[in-house]
Fold these 2 entries.
Entry 1:
Amino acid sequence: MNEIQELYREVILDHNRHPRNFGEIEDADRVVEGINPLCGDRITLYLRLNKGNVEDITFNGTGCAISVASSSLMTDKVKGTSVSDSLDLFDKIHRLLTDENDYQAEDLDKLAALSGVRQYPTRVKCASLAWHALKTALTGSETNTSTE
Amino acid sequence: MNAITASQSNIKLISDVASLRADIPALHQKIWGKPLAYLDNAASSQRPQFVIDAVSNHEKRNHANIHRGVHKLSQRATNAYEGAREKVRAFINAGNSREIIFTRGTTESINLVAHSLGLSQLKSGDEVLISWMEHHSNIVPWQLICERTGANLRTIPITDRGELDLEAFNQLLSERTKIVAIVHVSNALGTINPVKEIIDKAHSKGAMVLLDGAQAVAHMRIDVQELDCDFYAFSGHKMFAPTGIGVLYGKKVLLEDMPPYQGGGEMILTVTFKKTTYNTLPYKFEAGTPHISGAIGLGAAIDYLSRIDFNAIAKHERDLLEYATSQLSDLPGSRIIGNAHKKTGVLSFILGDIHAHDIGTILDQEGVAVRTGHHCTMPIMEFFSVPATARASFAFYNNRNDVDQFIGGLRTTLEIFS
């Protein structure tokens, strides 16, 4: 695989073409907008929480393939897990996207495909946008997040 | 060699602009193993070796502060800095070098006018007229000033082709209009606006006109006296000079009446705690030590351009635009944003539902540099209902190989996203 195929792996292209959990949750407990001013990516995350678990999570908005696929993969992975596991996952993804020592967590499954952005520093923000929005939704009182 | 002697002695101007590619060191390198096709000139252009040498020679031998030292280096630096001002004057055919103010760039030039002229002269109910195709730097300063003065900001709409709606302009223009601030050439669309007509109409209603010339100066001959614009703003780095240096041209009679924009050294004659008297033009607007080497680089870029036939530059860039437009139009899903009858070499586009950022990354992998995003023109993106575009923009040193590489990269993009 060359670098560009490493970035645009089939799983990324698939989740971009057919994003999972795309839409709104009408009775969401948390709604957080994430904006990447550099390229205009804009996603909104909707979460319904129940007894410390992410019972449901969806997103909508527009963005590049990397940000859409990352959002889609994230919602797939986080849905039905506990808030604390989701925050652990945020830390792992953060390392996956930025760690210079080729960090590879074992339990990331399809999310490991996001590691292709390491070669493209300008694209790390695209991949991390949804995750920052997730962290804000799970921990913060703010309703907006930005990669800047 | 300088601008004045070149034009006065009728030296034959260079018309084979393609041959000038050899003068630009940055173009002769590989990116990801591919030859660089630099098509991001509307964001910033590359420097000729001649400009790099002029800056380097100044830094090596002649650097000192200007206008104050009695020693040799200060005299050399002052002469070079003021020489650059005279070159700028000749380049845009201003009547007087006191009308040339060095700034950090187009943005600061516009902010200077908005703050100095706007705050001192605008009143509640006055109107400032801009257009939908302005760069944010010709929107936000006016919003700030209108908020503070109670003046109203009005906007000339654009057509589907990406041209100004001149009928709407005629209707918006009134005795309430005090300032018309318009982009000469749109950075996102390439549209060359009919600025002479706009200036004449604005003047007939007593309004002043500022032109944002950032995207014009590298591509066409500018004559501020013929245009009769009141202010003309542009940046060095989009015309083969360093970043951090730009120009505000203003009519002397207007600049003289305007209060200083920033206070400090250089802009004063005398200072006491009771009263400060301001320096004469242009120094009244040049507080602090300026970007001396940047101004010298800008002067060198003007010297370099003065050898080249601007008509040949325009023809060469138009040929590249037509070639690229026709190739791009053949690609499935391509849509060109900005189809004005009069355009510079700017090709803004989308490709199906592939996001501009993905296009930009894949083109980069093919050695092709383009801009992706909203180009600091979010209202234009809103008008055309696109979140972002990719943009290829040409300078005199580009050639058809660059276009072929660009189109090849787009074919690769389509394959990856097929």
Note: DSSP finds five helices and four strands in chain A.
Entry 2:
Amino acid sequence: MSEAARSGRSPAAQLDEVDKRLINALQGGFPLIAEPYRQVADSLGVSEAELLQRLDSLLERRVLTRFGPMFQIERAGGAFVLAALRVPEAGFERVAAQVNAFPEVAHNYRREHELNMWFVLATATPQGIAEAIAAIEAATGLPVFAFPKEREYFVEMKLHA
Amino acid sequence: MPELKPGPDPELDATDRRLIVATQAGLPRVSHPYHAIAEQLGIAADEVMRRLQRMLDVGVIRRIGAVPNHYAIGYTANGMSVWDVDDARIDELGMQVGALEFVTHCYRRPRRLPDWPYNLFAMVHSRNREEVAARVAEIAALLGDACRAHDILYSTAILKKTGLRIAG
């Protein structure tokens, strides 16, 4: 992870107009046809080779974190829970390392609040969540506050480059 | 606004799971990406496309496309706004908050009293904290007297970000 990403205050990456159009056009609806990149390239007025090369570069530079299907993990039989810890400032780095060591921890953010560590647990089965929480509590000696979603009102990528 | 169906898809089979494992890190960036996956799994390319389409139709796949790193495209302020909303009105109001153009995720979650009084979470990404605060004020206006208290938790560091994976 770059220093900029770590700080959470990175300046925007250098993107040209074609990159921006590509990012905005590729946020959903990638075609399920034999040559999908060619169709997208045609619609953007670039060659397929240029599209693939730019996509590789955007992934390489971490402007895009991923390109492909975005799964709804609960529909695939897995489970996904937001959780938080109240971590004493003096032990923050140690606890971050302990929490991050769990493969079930997909994302982990430091946030400005008394509950200062917020992470997402993703497991192959719903029972896996309770097991991961118990293991994190044992490793850190801190109570985990779990916030399973009760209802989703909307989730969509609406960010424009 | 469609509500996603809860619970696992009963028709998901072993081949679908292999397809999920093969594509969750991303699609191959070659002219015929579905053929490349098909070859890897030992099934026909048509079947790969048909199965991906079915998983899209039933909501196992939300969408197929690019996942931007919001910091890299200029959304450097990330505020998790949290709200204590009247239980009788949260679903009606949650739908309205979720529909706001600048809200990228919106969920109802349990309170954890006395530590945590908030039951509505709305993620707001913007170019700076002032913009996040202005957008949170819009949400506050929308919720009106149905909201008893709120807070904004700004992120100050990404400690880990690997994306969601299911076991392969």
Note: The first helix of chain B runs from residue 14 to 23.
